[in-house]
Recover the amino acids of this structure.
């Protein structure tokens, strides 16, 4: 294969994995890091941090490949997705299957360095990631299932360091589910017309004219649960400063999405990276001064 053709193929693989759009990796990574830092009492083992960071990149990439394989018959009819490599023919279905398998294997080799409970949870995480695309066919709010998939690094983070999953780990997963419903509803508001036409189920369609209200209520639930976790763990003021910063960003999102403009809704979705980051910075800052 000539160099230019090889580089084009590698670029197509990268776009299939969404490496050119890292927002998905970040939205998966932040809640994982919340859990890793809290489970590690503010000082997680460096090798655990690196395993979860690299594992997040690998599994998010694998999830994108599996999602596009499952959605091939739909993506061609949606303006935002019709240029994806599987639709344009830049990557064949067989190539995509091999790529997904290699990414999953690499992630599994990473997690084998951790304890048995974390390894078993990783198998469940793979099953959730692989089945998520099909929930959009029948589940009224598939964003909730996405929240489980995007938040499964939370129980894994606790398991890797504590050998068990305390109650706070499951509550943190619940907070992430509400957060995912909020930001992915904003995302779904961009594609609402196309999704209605092809028969896809999304929270934006299910909530209808109450979509903005639903987003804000989910944001409130996220902050409420995280606040209760802070009380339970006796976390300090910097943790709550992080939550307050996240609340300000969420209010900003309200002004972006209230008119339901497609570009503004997409901007709000992307901006959730900063919500996760601010919460994480609050956790780190609190651990450094406590």
């Amino acid at each position: 294969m000539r160099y230019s053709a090889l580089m084009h193929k590698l670029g197509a693989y990268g776009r299939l994995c969404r490496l050119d759009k890292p927002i998905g990796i970040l939205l998966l990574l932040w809640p994982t890091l919340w859990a890793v830092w809290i489970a590690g009492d503010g000082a997680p083992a460096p090798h655990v941090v690196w395993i979860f960071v690299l594992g997040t990149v690998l599994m998010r990439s694998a999830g994108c490949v599996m999602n596009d394989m499952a959605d091939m018959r739909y993506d061609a009819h949606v303006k935002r997705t019709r240029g994806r490599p599987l639709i344009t023919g830049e990557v064949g279905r067989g190539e995509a299957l091999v790529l997904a398998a290699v990414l999953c294997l690499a992630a599994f080799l990473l997690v084998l360095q951790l304890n048995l409970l974390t390894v078993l949870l990783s198998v469940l995480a793979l099953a959730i990631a692989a089945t998520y695309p099909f929930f959009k066919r029948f589940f009224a709010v598939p964003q909730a299932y996405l929240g489980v998939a995007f938040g499964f690094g939370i129980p894994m983070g606790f398991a890797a360091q504590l050998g068990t999953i305390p109650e706070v780990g499951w509550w943190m997963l619940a907070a992430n589910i509400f957060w995912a419903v909020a930001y992915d509803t904003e995302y779904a508001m961009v594609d609402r017309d196309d999704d209605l036409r092809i028969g896809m189920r999304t929270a934006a369609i299910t909530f209808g004219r109450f979509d903005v209200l639903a987003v804000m209520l989910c944001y409130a639930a996220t902050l409420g649960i995280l606040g209760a976790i802070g009380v339970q763990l006796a976390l300090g003021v910097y943790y709550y400063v992080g939550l307050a910063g996240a609340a300000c960003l969420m209010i900003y999102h309200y002004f972006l999405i209230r008119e339901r403009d497609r570009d503004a809704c997409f901007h709000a979705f992307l901006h959730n990276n900063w919500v996760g980051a601010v919460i994480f910075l609050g956790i780190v800052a609190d651990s450094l001064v406590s």
In short: The radius of gyration is 19 Å. The CA atoms of residues 57 and 277 lie 17 Å apart. The first helix runs from residue 3 to 16. The chain has a mean pLDDT of 91.
